[in-house]
Amino acid sequence: MPEGPSASTLAYTDEIRGKLKENESQRAEVTGYINQLTIQLHRWQLRLQTLNDRKAQLEKELGPQR
């Protein structure tokens, strides 16, 4: 009759599974942070574009008086 895995092998397997679960949890957390920051970066890029457009419009209105 074949023997099953030893207790130490099962314990090691459980330890590795626990580490994988923790790793996946940390990966999900970091991915969430990256997504939040990507959205914030996009908002700041839009704001900068708006400010650049306003600057160009104001300089155009100022015209040769500069």
Query: So how many helices?
Result: 1
- End-to-end separation: 95 Å
Largest sheet, strands/sense/barrel? none
Task: List segments where confidence is low: pLDDT < 50 over at least 5 consecutive residues.
Answer: none
Structural class: mainly alpha
Percentage of residues in helical conformation: over 70%
Radius of gyration: 28 Å
Spatial shape: rod-shaped
Multimeric state of these chains? single chain
Q: Which percent range describes the beta-strand content?
A: under 5%
Number of strand elements: 0
Q: What is the string of helix and strand elements? A: H
Mean pLDDT over the full residue set = 94
Report on this model:
The protein is built from 1 helix and no strands. By secondary structure, the chain is mainly alpha-helical. The chain is rod-shaped. 0% of the residues are buried. The mean pLDDT is 94.
Helix and strand layout, with pairings?
Layout: H1 7-62
Key descriptive features of the protein:
66 residues, mainly alpha, rod-shaped
In short:
The protein has 66 residues and is mainly alpha-helical. The chain has one helix and no strands.
